[in-house]
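INTERNAL AUDIT FORM
Audit reference: QA-55
Scope: verify that the stored structure record matches its stored sequence.
Auditor: D.O.
Record contents follow.
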Amino acid sequence: MYRKVEQPPTPPENFELPFEGKLSPDNRWVIMANLIPWSEFEPEYAQNFSGEMGAPAKAFRMALGALIIKEKLGTSDRETVEQIRENPYLQYFIGMTAYSNEAPFEASMLVHFRKRIRVDLVNKLNKKMFRKLTKSEEQPSEEEDLSERKNQGKLIIDATCAPADISYPTDLGLLNQAREQSEKILDSLYEPLKYKFKTKPRTYRNRARKDYLKVAKQRRPLGKERRKAIRKQLQYISRNLGHIEQLIAKGADLNCLSKKRYKMLLVVAEVYRQQLWMWSNNKKRIDDRIVSLNQPHIRPMIRGKAGKAVEFGAKLSASCFSGYVFIDRISWDNFNESGDLKAQIEEFKRFTGSYPESVHVDKIYRTRENRAWCKDKEIRMSGPPLGRPPKNINKETKKQAIDDEKVRNCIEGKFGQGKRRFSLNRVMTKLSNTFQTAIAITFLVMNISTWLRPFFCLFLGRFQRITNSLLFSALNINITYSLADYPKKNLSEQLA
């Protein structure tokens, strides 16, 4: 059940504190709370709940605010709750009206917050805030004919990968994990039916563990040894799956397994099928290959980057304009990002009211089809033209190419900011939907940081002026005192 918050937002000076004092309106969390339109997206969030049944859910401001705090501070779920419990500014940010020493919710609630706040809702909020703050520059007027509006603005497009928190997968390691999980599932199914059997089905788990460690502990095992170890693990898993089928045939109920354990059974069966096919055909790849038992939705991404030829996570395509970056597509499959260029440009037109004057992309986007489409829309695409480069290149062409690369560096810097400053380099969530929500929250927080930059620059400039005035006053006093200490007769000599 969701109860809509009818009361108006509390001003920072009215926030109740256990001691005398007031919250500063210049604090970053107070400024951020005033920037985000909480009430406009609360009805969409309330659709996740029943209007009459169930316990009252946490408000939208509390749910989204907690996720923003976690991403902004770079803390875990438990540490985020502790920070909120100790900081009155954070409590004001999530919509509380008075300071409390008690935690507003359990750390496990952040998982439910990520489930309820979907990617599309975060993207809508992201664009709504951009329109609110850049209304005079980007938002087209109602009387203006969009079909006759000239191209304006610069659009930057690129793609990257958000790696997941998994260990580097190997065929032997995956099969060993699948064997261990199959043994646990077999034990769960056998326990209710053990009175029907004289002996427990043999799994040879100790021998299987020794066979695995015999090769896994070697620094550089030979290919024949690794292939032989994989074959043995496949035989152990095949034996365990056969025992599971026999138990089911003799009356074992799959309902005794939890949802997580039942899902693991399906994953183990699929991993066995994939690994058996690759071993039988002596192949190194297969479509939709599973690289993690706990996160079977993750796929290997062949990136070809220096030091990281393969990444394991979600691939996302993003667009950047006016210094702000927005997510256009998130996929678990490795797609060709050049096919998204037309849709991203059309989305730019729907958002701003006109096509961009120029689009700045890397080499993979500069296909003949994309070039022809951009030329038809009178959009200049960055990069050299097709064909043999001319012998003599004028200075204007060189300068244009350099300027285009400088503009394209903006989105590369955004990706670097997300991976170094925020959690885009290693997303810690485990579920598919929460993983995508965490990525969207990262880009939302990056844009909020960009929006807050003028406020901090203004504060730093004011602080610098006060510091300079105090410094000059101190220097003036010191100079006056030093001149007064000298006798008048020696003053001319000292100055000379």
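Auditor finding: record pair retrieved intact. The beta strands are 154-163, 299-305, 308-321, 324-331, 358-360, 380-381.
Action required: none
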